Amino acid sequence: QVQLVESGGGLVSAGDSLRLSCAASGRTFSTYAMGWFRQAPGKEREFVAAISMRGGITTCRGSVKGRFTISRDNAKNTLYMQMNSLKPEDTAVYYCAAKVRSSPGAVYSRETEYDYWGQGTQVTVSS
User: Fold this and answer.
1) Which of 91, 92, 93, 118 is nearest to 35 (CA)?
2) How far apart, in whole angstroms, are the C-alpha atoms of residue 15 and residue 102?
3) Which pLDDT tens digit goes with each residue over 37-60?
């Protein structure tokens, strides 16, 4: 069983920055591919960014490219997402997710590919 706990959300103004963190339990974090997803009110959950097990490969959705950066520290069992130049349309609950049987260098963008999810952290961006 893997437990994921997100933190770092909050209420900010457009143009501000936030850094989300996701702390993972267990001793095999470095073997998990990880991802961030978000769900805005009244919308389906959507992919935001993903990172390979060792952090060498990342991908993200087009609307956050150049503004959001996903990273990980395997020594600290922690996933991060630096979010800059935030926009009101980034308002959502942000979730981290872990895929426990992943291939080295692989990244995953579909919800169904992930095995464990955190409880989410709210990000609200005011205009």
Assistant:
1) 118
2) 35
3) 999 999 999 999 999 999 999 999
